[in-house]
Amino acid sequence: MNAFRETNDALIGAQKKFEEAQAQARRVRALRDYARLARLRFDNGTASYIEVLYAENELFGAELVAVSTLADRYAQLINVYKAMGGGWVDLSDPLAAPPKGKENEARVTPPADPGQWSFTWSSS
């Protein structure tokens, strides 16, 4: 019963975060239009620069909230995987590309003689 409850909670949470992210994206689009129009009014001499600053400040705040909401949405999706038992790490490890640009990477070479271990340093 706990597993079903956790899975249900995670799925509902993911759906709610998706809806919230969509609403934040709509808000950012509207505030971008507002900032663009405020700049146009200022350029044409019908508004003060204070209005432009206010519009850009509101847009910046909305963009920060949208990014935070998107991060929460991805965290909620991870909760769905976790509630359903995980397993994505085991499947993705062989598919992951090896990291690039690691310099001085230590490699351990298994010994021919069990009493001897060797460590080599290589530059990629």
SSE sequence, one letter per element: HHHEE
Tell me about the biggest sheet?
2 strands, antiparallel
What are the low-pLDDT stretches, counting only 5+ consecutive residues below 50? 114-124
Taking all Cα atoms into account, the compactness measure Rg is: 26 Å
Mean pLDDT across the residues is 80
Overall strand count: 2
* Strand neighbour order, sheet with most strands: 1-2
Distance between the termini: 51 Å
Question: Percent of residues in beta strands?
Answer: 5-15%
Rough outline = elongated
Description of the structure:
The chain is mainly alpha-helical. The protein has a domain at 2-86. The protein contains three helices and two strands. It has helices at residues 2-43, 49-83, 88-92; strands spanning 105-109, 118-122. Strands 1-2 form a two-stranded antiparallel ribbon. A hairpin with an 8-residue loop joins strand 1 and strand 2 (118-122). Helix 1 (2-43) runs antiparallel to helix 2 (49-83). The two termini are 51 Å apart. Mean pLDDT is 80; it is low at 114-124.
SSE order and pairing:
Blueprint lengths: L1 H42 L5 H35 L4 H5 L12 E5 L8 E5 L2
Antiparallel strand pairs: 1-2
Helix pairs in contact: 1-2
Tell me briefly what this model is.
This protein is mainly alpha-helical. It is built from 3 helices and 2 strands, in the order H-H-H-E-E.
Main features:
elongated; 124 residues; two-stranded antiparallel sheet; mainly alpha; 66% helix
